[in-house]
Design brief:
48% of the residues lie in helices and 9% in strands. The chain is α+β, with helices and mostly antiparallel strands and 421 residues long. It has a four-stranded antiparallel β-sheet, covered by helices on one side. It has a three-stranded antiparallel β-sheet with strand order 5-6-7. It is elongated, with a radius of gyration of 35 Å. Residues 109-190 form the Core-binding (CB) domain.
Length: 421
């Protein structure tokens, strides 16, 4: 019959000391068979339960003494022995619980933090800092407000749909890129163990069933544009506003350029001596260099802008990076609202009566060329960087035709500023 250890009291346990021999020493404290207090030569004390688990002798740690009291150690030892009798290995069970805790901690990652970690991991794959900034700005503007505080493990296809649906029709290209960027962030989170299952931002067999294909959305869908009769009044109101967002919008209007081209413009693209803005192919939608003859009003605007040595952007944001697309859109919205507040009709599209947006300025320019001038339509299309017959386009890119385009842009600026020739 096995010897039963004397059941020691809490005070007796407190008085136990290492006998002074080398190595670890254990003392049975009784109350639960196999419960021992283990001593180290340095004075450390901890609880150990010796028991047979599946025919194998095991030693199970129950914590340090006195952090774990004698009563607590006995309660835990009894609990472990009950589990052993039920065929459960307490050590394996505890190991599994710890592993699950690690998994749970891994899954507790906010989308906003996942964006930062993903971008840091992909840093080497970005061609330049502007590319990374475009990723950051797009995600920060459209995705983070809705998904930022969500755990990546909890994000579903319906959450991604909530982000994309409001801008899918009006900003199809931006929305399509945004979808791909969200998909990349969530793919990174999956590989790193922060989520599992299908990627909710995937297009095929997923969002494709909820949103129309980008290619099927009218390619030249009309963006709300300022009516020609309102353009000079709108431009005058714009010039009275301060800030780089207003100046960028003014420059976009004078050059009939896309918002993205203006927001990403750098001083090394602009030749003030010749009055030319040369946008490199990698920044153009058609992936071809685009030369913009600057009207005098645009050159005057540029000369009045401050420059900083450590920032090459013509229209930097207050924190130094690129202005967001929303900055120009917000400026347009405020101009409309201010005009309404003053008793005006605001600045709305003549067809759909919706408030004008920055991209609609290009339509206003195209209407002006067609309705108020004798300039060739092909010349206007080249100014807008639209694709036309290659031989015609080549002709308008040659030196003397560039100057004819400059004449057109000067007249456009005169129209906006109500300046007579």
């Amino acid at each position: 019959m096995p010897r039963i250890a004397k059941e020691l009291s809490a005070l007796e346990v407190k008085r136990l000391v290492h006998p002074g021999a080398d190595g670890l020493t254990t003392v049975a404290v009784g109350g639960v068979s196999g419960l021992m207090l283990q001593f180290t030569p340095a004075g450390g004390r901890s609880w150990v339960l010796r028991a047979s688990v599946g025919g194998r002798r095991r030693e199970m740690g129950l914590g340090s003494y006195p952090e774990v009291s004698l009563a607590q150690a006995r309660d835990t030892a009894r609990e472990f022995k009950d589990k052993i009798r039920q065929g459960i290995d307490p050590v394996e069970e505890r190991r599994a619980a710890r592993a699950e805790l690690v998994v749970q901690r891994m899954r507790n990652l906010r989308f906003a933090d996942a964006v930062d970690k993903c971008l840091s991991a992909k840093l080497d794959s970005f061609k330049n800092s502007k590319h990374r900034q475009q990723w950051e700005n797009t995600l920060a503007t459209y995705a983070t407000p809705l998904l930022g505080e969500m755990q990546v493990a909890d994000i579903t296809v319906h959450d991604v749909f909530r982000v994309l649906e409001p801008i899918w029709q009006e900003k199809t290209e931006t929305a399509s890129r945004l979808r791909g960027r969200i998909e990349t962030v969530l793919a990174w989170a999956t590989v790193r163990g922060h989520r599992s299952g299908e990627n909710p931002a995937r297009w095929g067999g997923n969002l494709k069933e909820l949103l129309p294909a980008p290619g099927k959305i009218a390619e030249q869908e009309n963006h709300p544009a300022i009516q020609l009769a309102d353009a000079p009044r709108w431009f005058s109101a714009l010039r009275k506003r301060s800030g780089n967002g207003s100046r960028a919008l003014e420059f976009a209007a004078l050059t009939a350029s896309r918002s993205a081209m203006v927001r990403g413009a750098t001083w090394d693209e602009i030749d003030m001596a010749t009055g030319l803005w040369v946008i490199p192919a990698e920044r153009m939608k058609m992936k071809r260099e685009h030369r913009v003859p600057l009207p005098s009003a645009a050159q005057q605007l540029l000369r009045a802008l401050p420059r900083t040595k450590d920032n090459s952007l013509v229209f930097p944001a207050s924190r130094g990076g690129q202005l967001s697309d929303m900055t120009l859109s917000a400026t347009m919205a405020r101009l409309h609202e201010t005009d309404l507040a003053k008793g005006g009709a605001g600045f709305v599209d003549g067809v759909n009566t919706r408030p004008a947006v920055p991209h609609g300025l290009r339509s206003t320019f195209r209407d002006w060329v067609a309705d108020r001038t004798n300039f060739a339509g092909e010349m206007a299309e080249v100014a807008l960087a639209h694709q036309i017959a290659s031989d015609v386009e080549a002709a308008y890119r040659r030196g003397h035709m560039v100057e004819k385009r400059r004449e057109m842009m000067d007249e456009w600026a005169n129209f906006l500023t109500e300046k007579s020739k």
